[in-house]
Amino acid sequence: MIDLHTHTTESDGTYSPQALVEAAVAAGLEALAITDHDALSGYDEALPSAQRLGLNLVCGIELSTKLDGHTVHLLAYFLNGPPSLAFTDWLTHMQESRRDRNRRLALRLQDLGLDVTLEEVEAVGRRMTGRPHFAQVMLRKGYVRNLQAAFDDYLDESAKGYVDRREPELMEAVERVVEGGGVASIAHPVRIGGRPRDAMHALMGELKERGMQAIEVYHSDHGPAEVELFGSIARNLGLKETGGSDFHGDVKPSIKLGTGPGHLRIPRSVLDQLRET
Length: 277
Description:
The protein has 277 residues and is of the alpha/beta class. It is built from 10 helices and 7 strands.
């Protein structure tokens, strides 16, 4: 059993990189990919522990991109060595865009009457502060009843406190990953809403033409119907399959490493086939 979609405290998870490796070993995982949002530092920090404990650790990342004006996540796996210098330079610019959005988001929430400062949010999120960290501060201060309400009322794209972020277009991000030596896989495609089967197939075909090599078929949000749909699209287009729990730790307590909400069992063969890409 493997898990190719997890997060640490280097983005919006609650387990440190070392703690995540230890939890993966305790759960009996053969391989683990750390895919922090827009950051590779979690993998770098976890690698010594993984080598010491004999865990196959995969270098990954989850990139925030735009498609038709909406955020879409793209997974990237670097299976044959670290990403290119050009890719890491591009990633630095993305991280600067995140910091700029955070500054504007703090001001927007203050305009709405919430005493939330960037400094206290960064104390929670550290280098990769994002909206989940704003939600944690809002919950602690009693502005919302739970973390989901923070997003529903203030932070989601349709909410009153939302502040847009400059994110690369999805097609560009796919090209950047491939040029940087990585394997690109669309993340939890079920979240790309509003598209019937044929339109989803056409979108994945267009992404393949840009260099995308895989689809995340197995995910905690995917039931049997979604697994069948995205597995069928992958087979029809000659794309590889990826899969993972999207583990975040305590902020998503129902999502367990390797098994998600209980139905995931991703075999080692998924990673083996991905390495053949």
